[in-house]
Amino acid sequence: MKKIYTCIDIGTDTVRILVYEYFLKKYRVLAVSSVRSKGVKKGKITDEASLQERLKLALEDIQKRIGIPIKKAIITIPAYDCECSLVHGNVPIVNDEKMVTEKDILRVQNSVTQGVMPNMELVNVTPIDFTIYENGSEIETIRDPKNKICDRLAVRAMMVCVPKMLVKDYARVVEACGVEVIDLVLSPIADYEQVRDEDMDNVHSLIINIGKETTTLSVFNKGIITNASVLKIGSNVIDNDISYIYYTNKKSARKIKENFGIAHPKYASKTETYEAHDVNGKLVKINQYELSKIINKRLTEILNVAKNELKVLTNKQIRYIMVLGGITDMPGVNFVLEDVFNANAKTYTLNTLGIRKARFITISGAIKYFVKKIKLRGKEYSMFSSDDVDGLIHNKTKIGKNASVLGRIFNYFFDN
After folding, report:
1. CB-CB contact of 340 with 332 (8 Å)
2. What's the pLDDT tens digit per position in 174-219?
3. H/E run at residue 166
4. What's this model's pTM, rounded to 2 decimal places?
5. Domain 83-163 belongs to what topology?
6. What is the CATH topology of the domain spanning 1-71+350-416?
7. Do domains 1-71+350-416 and 83-163 have the same CATH topology?
8. What span, in angstroms and rounded, lies between the C-alpha atoms of 343 and 65?
9. Which string of b and e fits 363-389 if b means at least 16 CB within 10 Å?
10. Residue 159 CB: number of other CB atoms within 10 A?
11. In 239-291, where do the E strands start and end?
């Protein structure tokens, strides 16, 4: 049966909404919206009214695309002051068969949450392994205890909490726009869910997500987050340099960076130029090679700050480094990564039809993580009722409920 999921990702730079259809183990984009943020500074909400206005614009855009309003969604939460704690719990198996069921697995996971501090909000509990006991003796430690016979089940898990006020601020803005918050997903966990592969799941890895004003580092051990940090430096320092050197406003500087920027001078043209106007209206010709040196210097600085922070986060050997964020769509970024981290760092290419830009990695991963979580609990869930699904219509073409998803997607692209 088809399930439909929605995620809202509120960032310092952009508010994004993604609607995914999940069917036959495949994800298809039904609609996506992206609008500039207001009222968010360095990942924290500073003006709820302004942010609500922007979020409502994105919600209205989504409604126009799919024909029905968004009523439920999961939301991403930044890793500010994130706490990752190794916890243990155990519960008796009380059914007559003494067989571990999905309910028992949920019970033992819930047993570890009693120690959450009053000022913190639990956002994730990831089981590392389970131990089954019989007559007080340890029998076996395994990853999946379902259907095992025992009289007690124990779990070792990683519990992740963030400040309660941070969660309340984000949830309050979303719910003020008429959307019920179904679940929370920590942004680094969403990132990992999207980029993970078999190799990363077996070693220590690092994800660096470069945002507009902040850069988030998250360390994973065999797919489980163990630490995270948010640095107060982001890609806007590149915009600031371009604006200062060429005497343009910030909006023009960003446009120059996105349309003409190359991250490494070695691969930039020494003859190609880009024309822009400075703040006085004077025409300025910008050489690509000179621009690339500005970008390279700042991007290298951001990565070196992250590299130094990594020494604080872990003393383990990191085998894989994945660098994410909108800046990674720029040509030449991988060569900068090679200069800073040698050969074990790379960017990620998102190949999903409709969301091929790096800025959609987090929101895509958040939905995939949510789906995986409810599957592990043996549940089925959709954020749209059957009546809502029947009402999924592309307003401009009036393609109705019997139209294929592919048909809706193609009409979405050709109409916009």
Report:
1. no
2. 999 999 999 999 999 999 999 999 999 999 999 999 999 999 999 9
3. helix 164-176
4. 0.89
5. Dna Ligase; domain 1 (3.30.1490)
6. Nucleotidyltransferase; domain 5 (3.30.420)
7. no
8. 42
9. bbbbbbbbbebeeeeeeeebbbeeebb
10. 21
11. 273-277, 283-287
